[in-house]
Amino acid sequence: MLKEFASYVTYGLIKLDQGSRLGDATEFFIYDTIKIFLLLSVIIFVVSIIRSYFPPEKTKKILSHKKEFIGNILAALLGVVTPFCSCSAVPLFIGFVEAGVPLGVTFSFLISSPMVNEVAVVLLWGLFGWKIAAIYMGTGLLVAIFGGFIIGKLKLEKWVEEYVYKFHAGQEQEILKQAFKERLQYAKWNTTDILKKVWLSIIIAIGIGGFIHGYVPQDFLANYAGKGNPFAVPVAVALGVPLYSNAAGVLPIVYALMEKGLSVGTVLAFMMAVTALSLPEMIILRKVLKIPLLGVFAGIMTVTIIAVGYLFNAIL
Amino acid sequence: MEIKVLGPGCPNCEKMVEMAKKAMKELGIDANIEKVSDMMEIMKYTMSTPGLVVNGKLKHSGKPLPSPDKVKELIKSEM
Hints:
By secondary structure, chain A is mainly alpha-helical.
């Protein structure tokens, strides 16, 4: 039905020539735009309802005094559904430590939350297919689990700012009860809020797919940065770190890179580096972490993300 | 009556203050609204801002903001 609608608009309303390059591109653009926005709206709405059951206060309680490893897995999974933005990383970190969440488990949460979320997964699904979306989600969770696990094993608590340990809430933070109607309201608000933030980059990404497609040689980048080049992954990661953006924001770049022959592993590693590892987030975390711990965090993340990149370049 | 609005000074926190003021006027309550922006103080109640605390009890936290009627109701419940 969507296909028919797209071709009706292209050839019936705008009256482009059937079979022309511009006609094809326009039809593809209309079809993909509608498809991705439909997917996004439905999935963000559903995930938002799930989210309303996992406020940070509850996640904290679940993770409190959890054993390592199991705790890391749970934290990485909860990172996907707990509503959180890096601007509130500091109160969240202090709250977690105060509640007795182990340091490594806290890191698993902090890594997975910005990197693996419904927006990233839906966009990858819509543009590259469900396989790449699933791979991104699976490896993102693995990076979060193992990154946090290693940080926990290294016993780096001494490199957390002292004042964090001195904080005592005194009273337990309350988890407010919500009626289902309120959860629906939250979901509606959250969906429109996210769509408002991402619509432009998505349209640009789809536009790149549809229009630039035919005009730059397909293997333009493949010659320089394809599978054969062992430096492609580290360079992509190094370029991704200073960039600060969410999944939707990097999507136009990611789409263009992939179109022009960059391999999947390199592109996924780039996207992970942009979303999970960024200078502004480091500056925020500096308020609670001493520099050596920040260094270890950045180092472990860089190494695991590069490893993911190589792995997928090797097997896909 | 003691009313606190928790938030580091974002536009939403200001809106919350305005709504609380209006609700109090309508309910005929005369009390001060305390704006709490110190992170450690906020953390005693919640991790998500903006928050509304009435008589030491957390009544709302996080986005989206409650409707003006809801704010009135939340304050009224502690009268």
